[in-house]
Amino acid sequence: MPTDQAIDPAIQTRLALEAQSRNGANWFFWIAGMSLVNSLVGLFGGQWGFVIGLGITQVIDAVLTLGDGSPASRLVGPVLTAAVAAIFIAFGYFAREGRRWAFIAGIALYVLDSLLFVLVRDVLAIALHAFALYCLVKGLRAKDQLDRLPKPRPATIGLRTA
Length: 162
Prior knowledge:
Number of domains: 1
Strand content: under 5%
Order of helices and strands: HHHHH
Structural class: mainly alpha
Oligomer: single chain
Distance between the termini: 31 Å
């Protein structure tokens, strides 16, 4: 098994950037997952939630909970939350596939969502959203650096020239 010193530095750089881009894209999955959990906790009467989740889903759940209280209106919140979470899951999927637009669109929507916490002055939520945005931007930057690297040549191990 080769040691790290035996691996070409260009390959090491490429692998590190791929991992950083993938890690950044994975934050979209975390954001979606925490939003879904928050919605389910609210649906079942819980009084806690994850700060990293989306503020818009919290607003949706709060507005619909204050509605007429019918079972149908209580289910609309989680359904809308699932739809919003699906959008962030799609951003995560396409960002992991190397689509720059997915990073940019997802970051833009998450910035807008973060503004909800600025409006209500939730310092902890603002700080955690800022950290998540930092991780997303690091992923985007790694993806951009990957795009600037020369394309790897196909391996020629075992090929003979005659």
